[in-house]
Amino acid sequence: MTRLxxxxxxxxxxxxxxxxxxxxxxxxLNQEGRVQAEALARRLASVGIAAVYASPLERTLxxxxxxxxxxxxxVVVREDLGEVRLGxxxxxxxxxxxxxxxxxxVQFVPSVMRFPGGESxxxxxxxxxxxxxxxxxxxxxxxxxxxxxxxxxxxxxxxAIGLHLDLFQRLVIAPASLTxxxxxxxxxxxxxLNDISHLPAVPEEKKWANPNGSN
Length: 215
Known about the structure:
By secondary structure, the chain is of the alpha/beta class. It is 34% helix and 18% strand.
């Protein structure tokens, strides 16, 4: 079995501002995001992590570098772990997008949704699954960390547990959360999902506010 530590990057200002950033360059962790990543790194410091892989975007690389530091391993960039390519929706405010008819497809029938000028969720899931399966073959009987984005991680988890893509929005992957799976020759095993017990306490009214986002 390969143990997968699936990690979403920490918080950033675009997330707070309600902007769908996608592949927009220059989106970095904010102070809260760095605190979250450092808390996660402390939690995983005693885990034997053999390798750390990350999406090429700044917020994921910064999170990955913080997590990797106690283990003295480099962060390896994998393009196919990158965020959903949102096309013309990139940089648009969520408040505006929620008013469009396509938004209902995003939420309720994502398997038939393609972002205007961008990817479909099926394509995102296919590349994420192929990439993670390749990494598992490279690391049999090892633990590896994968730092990516909410929708990419949710799409992979849905595939691993046999959940139809149209239901994947029911999963929650919060910033700097930890999801753990064991993957081998037989069926994958989901050990934990969206664990945020290592993060600083947040006010109750903010805890469940837009936990997924897409930034």
